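#struct-pred

JT: dropping the chains for the assembly here, can someone run the whole complex?
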Amino acid sequence: MTAVDDSTIRDPKRLRAEMVRALRDEEAITSDSVAAAFAAVPRHQFAPEASLELAYDLHRIVPVKKDENGLNVSVMSAAHLQGVMLEQADIAQGMKVLEIGSGGYNAALIQELVGSDGEVTTVDIDRDIVDRARLCLDDAGYRHVKTVLADGETGVPDGAPYDRIVVTAAAWDIPPSWIDGLTEKGRLVVPLTVCGTTRSIAFDRDGEGLLSRSYRLAHFVPMQGEGAAEERKAVLREGVVVQTDDVRVPLNAPALNHALDTPQLVRWSGAAWDLPDELDLYLTLNLPRAVRLHAAKDVVDQGLVKPSALVGVPALVSDNSIAYRTGRENEETGGFESGVIAHGPQAEALADQYAQLLRRWAEHHRRRGAATFRYLPGPAPSPLPQDAVLRRHGIVTASWA
Ligand SMILES: C[S@@+](CC[C@H](N)C(=O)[O-])C[C@H]1O[C@@H](n2cnc3c(N)ncnc32)[C@H](O)[C@@H]1O
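RK: done, full complex below.
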């Protein structure tokens, strides 16, 4: 008997209704307006190459374009993340919205949210993507959405000021055009990357700068063009990489590689370990010389590096030593306990410093959404405060309640 591809007989309308219900259950969608937008836009028409199952999957992206190394440069973002970001954006009827990073689907959702009195512009740096988005938008009946080919770094001044700017590529900085391009009560929703980890942050204007209202863990393809990230990566050995975007951090690859061959020092914090993405953010922004350590599966399987590095883990480095987080089951700390693995001549000192931070987070800041971000445009103060992240157009700071 010939197998029938289930995707050809499933009904997109039903899949869409199921998706909306599931997004509500998972609290990615919390408002009726965003739910109605997701129910209205035929998502599969913006991913004609994908199966219906993939198009309507909550958590999977649909690849659209890859670079010469096979890395995604454009994708249709996962529905879950799109729901979260549109809730963060709080878009109302009649608003003027700029989306940076096109695909068509998200712009169509935004068009539903702003209604016929609103205006939606979507800009992409890649001609293929703009052309594809235009076709999909026209096919699905969203002819009023304006598509623009440009580097989003400069915004789209033609339509400014915008009530909302929604960025859908991982940004490393916030260029002046995004702040200046907002109305006084405008909101910028942007996936901002610091030291290899990204949060979608909803920023409102605050004087000359921006103040965060909410943030959520996010994964995006990186911003290209003028605003591309300035970061350093060092391969310590095959399958072990450290990255940083802080110019003050020493990256001595041979010495750090040598350190990995020295015995592991393990220090348990005695503190609870849960809410891993919140702890990850806290460590990234509070470790004095933070890098992100990534290890491939075979390196982890050999026992050289702990599994936390499989998805990238905040690490503390000196010239010749490295320390990073680990964890273990421990009923006494509520199920799990955080700890530190350190290598190298300064392993003791780094492990102590790291463990102190693990305890401070568990004692004072262990809650979702505890951080507040600020973006201050203009020249950075000198010396740069320890808790500030230096960018081309300003500084990012994060404080914990
Ligand atoms: C995740 S995709 C966008 C997804 C889309 N919003 C959707 O509806 O699913 C990210 C897009 O950002 C674009 N991009 C990257 N850097 C950019 C830049 N500097 N200006 C404008 N677009 C950029 C990429 O070409 C890519 O198409």
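JT: nice. The chain has two domains: 6-227, 232-365. The mean pLDDT is 95.
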